[in-house]
Amino acid sequence: MAACSIGKEAGDETVSLSTDASSVTENDDVSGGNEAPEIEVKEGVYADYAFITIGGEIKRYKLFSEDLGDVDLACVSDDNLLFKWGAGDAWRFYEMKEYPELDRVLGLGPGGGIFEAAPFRGVKISEIEAVKDSEAVLLLNGSVESGKEIWEDFYTKTSKHIPASVIIAHCYTQSSNVSEALKQAEAGDYPCLYFKKLTYDGVEYVLEPVRRVDDEYVVRKDEDYDRDTKYFMYLRHFEGEAEFPTMIYSYYSIYILTDDGASDRDEIESSQWMDTTGAIPYAEVFGEYTWKDNAPFLPLQ
Length: 301
Description:
Blueprint: E1 8-9, E2 14-18, E3 38-42, E4 44-46, E5 49-54, E6 57-65, E7 81-85, E8 91-95, E9 104-108, E10 113-117, H1 125-132, E11 136-140, E12 143-146, H2 148-159, E13 164-172, H3 180-186, E14 192-200, E15 205-213, E16 216-219, E17 230-232, E18 234-241, E19 249-258, H4 265-270, E20 282-291
Parallel strand pairs: 1-7, 11-13
Antiparallel strand pairs: 2-3, 4-5, 5-6, 6-10, 7-8, 8-9, 9-10, 11-12, 13-14, 14-15, 15-16, 15-17, 18-19, 19-20
C-alpha cells in the first residue's frame, strides 16, 4: 500500500496549503511556474472536489466518474482506507490497486465515485510581478495591467508591415459569481497565468502558446499543442462605449486577430452563434476596459 495516513479524520480547522512545480498539471495554457500559490483550504468535499489528507499533505481530487461498474470493491477495507470525513464518517476514500500512485481514488459517500487527482494551477503574486518586469504585455482579466507601450510599439510596426513579435501574458482572478462551495474548491487555481506569443512576418500573424522558463519565453513544440497555433491575416482595433447598460464595462478598446478585414465587431462576434460555416474565426489579443463596480472579478491577491 502506498504511504499514507490511514483513517485520518478531518477536523473543521482551516489548513494552509501550497503546491510545488511537480504538482502542476501540464496544460496548454496555464503556467504553474516554479512558485505556487499559498491558499487557505479545508478538508472535505466541495462541489465535485474532494480535499483529502494523504501522508500529512492535503491533496485535491475531482470527481471523474460516478460509474462504479468496473471497480473492484474489494478495496473497500480498513487496510485501504486513506481518509474519512464528515459526521459519522459520511465520506470515505480508498486506495485503488489499479492506481498505486493515487492518481485516482475511490470515494464513497452521499455522491461517491472515482476521484482523479486535480493539482492546483494557480501562481504566486511574485510570479505575476516578474511578468511586469519582463518584456511582456500583461492582461488582467482581459484588460491591460502593464506593458501597454510594448503593445503600442508592436501595433505601430505591424501597421507599417514591419515584422515584429510580442509576448502576451493572460492573468485571471476567480469570479465572484460562483457558489461558496465552488469558490473554495477552485481557489487554488487562481490567479492563473498563461502566455501567448504573437508574431508578424510582414504578411501573416501567428498566435502560439509559450511557457516562461528561466525568464525566457519558449514556444511549445509538443505535437499536442500545435493545434493551438493559429494564423490570421488582420489585426484590427475596435473601441467605444458599452453597447448596453447591462455590460460590466463602460468603455472598451480591443484588438482582435481575424481573416475578415471588413466586418465590424458586432458582426464578427455575433457570427459565433451561427453554424461553423458562418462563424468568423477571431482571437482577442489585447484589451483595455473600464470596468464597472459590478464586474465579477475577485481582487488579485
